[in-house]
## 1
Amino acid sequence: MSTVFTKIINGEIPGRFVYRDETVAAFLTIEPVSYGHTLVVPVEEVDKWTDLDPATWTHVNEVAQKVGGAIIDAFGSERAGYLIAGFEVPHAHVHVFPADDMSGYSLSTIMPADQTDPGKMDEAAAKLRARLGVGEDGREK
């Protein structure tokens, strides 16, 4: 059975993409620690990041770094947080989020999906897309 991330990548359920190529997709999480919280996910469905082939893992990190720079620029945060957890969805992914302190690193401060403001989520995605030079599908213009 496909993971929820594969379903987002395949367009079976909606996602707010901020980057996408043949190997990696990046989209906003529905339960962010703050607006702009992005998941960088390999297209290939692999459970653990330690099982990804080195080339894919390298590309995931290159995209995470680009997204992190865009997050700092778009949201004025001191840093971009980077976290690997992976227990909530069995599909390798990196969390990248605006960070001014350590609070987001525990993921204990997430906003439940039903408490996020859809307008603010759309605005966050648009800010990141503009800085990354991509369209609504996350692909380069």
Note: Residues 4-132 form a domain with the HIT family, subunit A fold (CATH 3.30.428.10).
## 2
Amino acid sequence: MWGVYISIFIALWLIQLLMTMIQVKHYRQTIRDMSKRGSGYLGVGVQKRKFGLGTVLIIVTNLEGIIIDCRIMSGVTVFSRFRNCKRFTNCDIFHILDQDIKYQAPLEMAIEKIKQQMNKSVSIL
């Protein structure tokens, strides 16, 4: 009897491992697609929770800090996929945080990464 339970547990664990690998492949492909812009900056923000929805937000800005593309993945399972987020498109990253936003934490993290890239490119010049 225990052999059946152990076999079922191992099978479920292997299925979860496979689905996680598929989700990581989707994440990498989305990052690759969004980073193919000629110029601008890419920022990724993550909000992890022990229980509840986790969120990954990817934004791409032009050189002036205007968001030109935004994708979001939110969910609790490995079936979650990125979807376009038109809400932040054409917003200025320097003024968007003044508003009350649903995805505040991942947006702040992504914008902070973009600002670091902007400062790095300015200091190199």
Note: The first helix runs from residue 2 to 34.
## 3
Amino acid sequence: MKGIVFTEFLDLVEAKFGLEMVDKIINESDLESNGAYTAVGTYSFSEMLQLLQHLSENTGISKDDLLLVYAEHFFAVLAESYPGLIETYKDPIEMLASIENHIHIEVRKIYPDAELPTFEILERTDNSLIMIYKSSRAMHYFGLGLMNKTFEHFNSSATINLEKIKEDGTEVKFTIQKN
């Protein structure tokens, strides 16, 4: 997993819960990196799981809810760092439908060894989208949060339902209906 995911996560934890919480979750985890991350480094996904688990335990907030909040933060980072990428699109459905064939291609130019989820489009209209998320990492709530922020970015809203195809969350069907 790319280091930017870790550095931004820890920045969010510090902003929301304080530096002491960052220190606490790092110390409670058994991290090969010892909690020292660079944005361009690559780190084990198990480290993110540990940090997320310990943050959940220390705050009483579910991991899924923490991933939603983190996704909102991460979207803002992406929008600020890569405004041209988002400005390419006029509509949230168009942007979400382009994840696999455009956005992930651009991400791979910056982070060639990034392990990204796949999104298979099953159905698309001007106001709806059905797609399958597949990832060895069950971070579908992170994806949901990014989708929510995409609609917010375009001053729009949607009803987004997720249905686990695989119980472990590694394959999820998203049904999106623009309001």
Note: The CA atoms of residues 140 and 169 lie 7 Å apart.
